[in-house]
Design a protein that fits this description.
heterodimer; A: 222 residues; mainly alpha; 10 helices; 67% helix; 0% strand; elongated; B: 203 residues; alpha+beta; 3-stranded antiparallel beta sheet; 4 helices; 28% helix; rod-shaped
Chain lengths: 222, 203
């Protein structure tokens, strides 16, 4: 169909077509500014390679990008930023081995943090076996924090897994964390504080579920 | 020639035209057979002729310009919706690194209030994955009564990592973890972070 009849109109239509073609990608760019522009070219190049590798591996890429942006915001040097992004990537790969790839992003990142805090891969993998369909993000966040505050890794991992097996709710984990934190601030030994506060956490057992051997009902400490 | 002179010729031509033509008996049959051999014209070209037939539409430069602006608007509109809120294309994979967008408020968001006591600070901001670690994105405001700084922002359900950037009156800048929240592990970037879980079971 010929839409134009005069030379002026034809010129306008040609210009419109060219503009439309040119502005469509520009509109995309305007809404999606280059997130890595904050990085220098060397850092950027390496981070992009890591992100591409993560994409190919099928693990989340967003946390890697955020880690690079965090490093840039904190004015960390190139080596540190790349090391942090690489550590995050390797953590994600390890989490996939331990817990599978059906996690949501929060679970995934909480698990990476737990690994970075020093939780062994085998201890983390137990959450997969005990998985009840309930997200374990809060359990892992509390576990990571306890380790950060000085509770030995083995004790913290064992205590949190015990609570998880008991069917502890989010509120139980939060309450435990709050109390232990207060005790540590008051000067108590972190490991001791955890052991004492563990006794106060109520037992929630779903009908038909099996308690771990150390938590059988005839155990007075439960 | 004049009309009276033309009349005999006209009458002759009319007579000749009206004279029946003698045809043989099979002529009609032959013509009809030939017609049947021809492909029947389809109705479609007739139906679509209006759309495909070239025509001229007079357009002034002003109308042409308005039409062009409309087309550009449609292009920008489609461009806006061809990428999702997470900065990814709808295919789930982008060939370039896309910015994780700071979350826009939605019905699933929960407003979280961040509070920090920093009486000697000149400015304080909360920085985290929810604002792409942009120290200028979320400044906190000082309460009228004292040195407490706060800001309330909507966050999506899930786990968020953040810290406070405290600018002192003497020009120093310090990254500070939230003393009332769980700690994130040391990541080698030089300043500790905190974790906030939003939503039931922090899904």
């Amino acid at each position: 169909m010929t839409l134009v009849s005069s030379r002026g109109s034809r010129v306008v239509m040609c210009a419109a077509t060219v503009l439309l073609g040119a502005l469509h990608p520009l509109a995309l760019v305007a809404q999606d500014p280059d997130p890595l522009s904050r990085l220098d070219s060397q850092t950027r190049f390496t981070v992009e390679i890591i992100i591409d590798s993560a994409r190919v591996a099928g693990v989340p890429t967003r946390p890697l990008l955020l880690k690079a942006l965090e490093g840039s915001a904190k004015h960390a040097d190139v080596k540190r930023i790349i090391a942090a992004v690489r550590s995050q990537f390797h953590g994600e790969l390890d989490v996939r081995v331990a817990l599978g790839s059906t996690l949501n992003e929060s679970e995934w990142m909480a698990a990476v943090s737990a690994l970075q805090a020093g939780v062994p891969l085998e201890a983390l993998a137990k959450f997969r076996g005990e998985r009840t369909g309930k997200p374990f993000t809060r359990a892992l966040v509390v576990l990571t924090d306890l380790i950060q505050r000085g509770v030995p890794v083995q004790e913290a991992s064992s205590a949190i897994m015990q609570l998880w097996q008991r069917g502890a709710a989010d509120g139980d984990f939060y309450g435990l964390w709050k109390n232990v934190e207060q005790d540590i601030i008051s000067g108590q030994n972190p490991g001791t504080a955890l052991q004492q506060r563990m006794r106060e956490v109520p037992v929630h057992v779903a009908p038909g579920s099996k308690l771990p051997a150390s938590q059988e009902p005839d155990n007075p400490s439960s | 020639m004049t009309d009276p002179e033309l009349d005999p010729y006209v009458e002759w031509m009319a007579r000749e035209a009206k004279r029946p033509v003698a045809v043989d008996a099979m002529a009609v049959e032959r013509v009809m057979a030939r017609v049947r051999l021809e492909a029947r014209p389809t109705a479609r070209p007739q139906r679509w002729r209006w759309f495909v037939e070239p025509r001229a539409l007079p357009l002034s430069p002003l109308v042409g310009g308005a039409l062009a602006a409309g087309l550009i608007g449609i292009g920008a509109f489609l461009g806006h919706f061809s990428i999702d809120r997470g900065g990814h294309t709808p295919t789930g994979r982008s060939d370039t690194v896309a910015a994780p967008r700071p979350p826009l408020a939605s019905v699933h968001d929960t407003v979280i209030k961040f509070v920090l006591v920093a009486p000697h600070a000149s400015t304080v901001a909360v920085v985290g994955d929810f604002n792409n670690w942009d120290a200028q994105a979320t400044p906190m405001t000082r309460t009228p009564t004292g040195g407490t700084w706060s800001v309330a922002i909507p966050l999506r359900p899930g786990r968020h990592v953040y810290a406070f950037v405290v600018n002192g009156a003497n020009g120093t800048t310090q990254w500070v973890a939230d003393p009332t929240a769980p700690l994130a592990p040391e990541d080698g970037l030089g300043a500790p972070n905190s974790v906030v879980l939003v939503g039931g079971s922090a899904s």
